[in-house]
DNA sequence: GAGCCAGTTGATCACTTGATCAATAAGCCC
DNA sequence: GGGCTTATTGATCAAGTGATCAACTGGCTC
């Protein structure tokens, strides 16, 4: 009797936990936060639902964590990218181009899901608040830095940050739901930012030399 | 033996159908589109789930219809209110005040749900598109009327309508998710509209004489 | 190579959902 | 008041959800 290859592929605890978290992120991006399910995750990594449940005692918590991970990763990536730019004006320009760029639909749909599902998932609602505040704080820091350098002036950087984020979120939501691309609406954000910061029109549009 | 009062309260077909539709709207406003359930509706009107299923063969369709009803009713109401105003500038001012007014959270959450759930409910996605287009068409008509009357000028009313709606939706989404009130952000929409329409600053803020 | 720890399974429970259908009974018409 | 239309029920199904737990076993340690 030939020994059948063992069907069980054993992994270390942390390794399996990371695999589950990564799979949850993939599902969220592809099929939405609601598609994060014990069985969906288990099926993807070829494992029993009980195992997923073993590593993630609460599915609600996993959903919240997954959202926070996706939103936080993007913020971290953008933070890193912008930190390489010399001026705050260029950073702001790059931020707008990125946040309203192509291939944004996955992240945007996750945010839309979070806004909707958050009402039934307290942990997720809390994470949504944390992430929104983090984005606002990031933009406030960027604006304040530009002010300190004398690149532009702004009366209330906190309020302006919320305004710009609201516009960007609205544009992206419309783009995802109704069309596919938000790039055509970049000028709206640019114009508002230039106006509020006292920058000459076109400053945020032109590509850097 | 006293005859127990009959537990069945019979209603005419259309009457029951209307009651179901109304109940679905109430549930959607209070608990979200996802809370629209055969059993939830049945329980509210004191009836068996099978009866609801009898009048609404598909729950997906009911969800789409309910969303369309809520969104359409608001558009109809606003259309009526604004039609009483003499000038397009006043209409625009009133529109902004209404769409960013208090007590908007119920409608906004329904929209957020629709954006999210629409990805799993084709009929709902279609209805979302119809409603978004209807709102845009309404705003385009308002802008074009103002142009024809010489109240203001706009290069591309279609694009401006989408921009203003995107800003309003973004502000409302933020307000619902993070805070409770969107009124503090009205000036953002006013400023953009005034700028794009060539109106003097403050035109859309002041209350009419 | 024996033994043990930890990762993994399979079975199972409780619950919610949409949906179907024969059977019942309410209320109207003649 | 008999009969007929139709609103309504109760029972039931299948699918899908999260969650639990005793039992199993892979692979490392000694």
Largest interface pair: A-B, 33 and 33 residues
The helix content of chain A, as a percent range, equals: 55-70%
Q: What structural class do you assign from the helix and strand content of chain A?
A: mainly alpha
**Shape assignment of chain A:** elongated
Radius of gyration of chain A: 21 Å
Number of strands of chain A: 0
What fold name goes in the CATH topology slot of the largest domain in chain A? Tetracycline Repressor, domain 2
- Beta percentage of chain A is under 5%
Number of helices of chain A: 9
Output the CATH homologous superfamily of the largest domain in chain A: Tetracycline Repressor, domain 2
Would you state the CATH class of the largest domain in chain A? Mainly Alpha
What does the main sheet of chain A amount to? none
What is the CATH architecture annotation of the largest domain in chain A? Answer: Orthogonal Bundle
User: How many angstroms separate the termini of chain A?
Assistant: 72 Å
Q: In oligomeric terms, what are we looking at?
A: homodimer
Domain module tally of chain A: 2
Order of helices and strands of chain A: HHHHHHHHH
Mean pLDDT of chain A: 91
List low-pLDDT spans of chain A. 1-6
Domain BetI-type transcriptional repressor C-terminal (chains A, B): 90-195
Pfam family, one (chains A, B): TetR_C_6
Protein name (chains A, B): TetR family transcriptional regulator
Organism (chains A, B): Cryobacterium glucosi
């Amino acid at each position: 009797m030939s020994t059948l290859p063992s069907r069980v592929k054993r992994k270390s605890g942390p390794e399996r936990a990371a695999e589950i978290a990564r799979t949850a992120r993939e599902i969220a991006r592809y099929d939405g936060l609601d598609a994060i399910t014990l069985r969906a995750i288990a099926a993807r990594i070829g494992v029993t639902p009980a195992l997923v449940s073993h590593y993630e005692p609460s599915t609600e918590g996993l959903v919240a964590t997954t959202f926070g991970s996706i939103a936080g990763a993007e913020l971290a990536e953008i933070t890193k990218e912008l930190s390489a730019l010399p001026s705050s004006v260029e950073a702001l320009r790059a931020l707008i181009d990125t946040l309203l760029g192509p291939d944004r639909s996955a992240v945007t749909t996750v945010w839309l899901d979070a806004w909707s599902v958050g009402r039934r998932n307290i942990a997720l609602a809390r994470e949504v608040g944390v992430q929104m505040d983090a984005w606002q704080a990031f933009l406030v820091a960027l604006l304040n830095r530009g002010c300190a350098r004398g690149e532009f002036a702004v009366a209330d950087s906190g309020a302006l940050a919320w305004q710009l984020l609201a516009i960007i979120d609205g544009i992206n939501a419309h783009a995802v739901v109704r069309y596919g691309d938000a790039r055509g609406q970049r000028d709206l954000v640019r114009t508002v930012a230039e106006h509020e910061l006292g920058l000459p029109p076109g400053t945020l549009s032109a590509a850097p030399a």
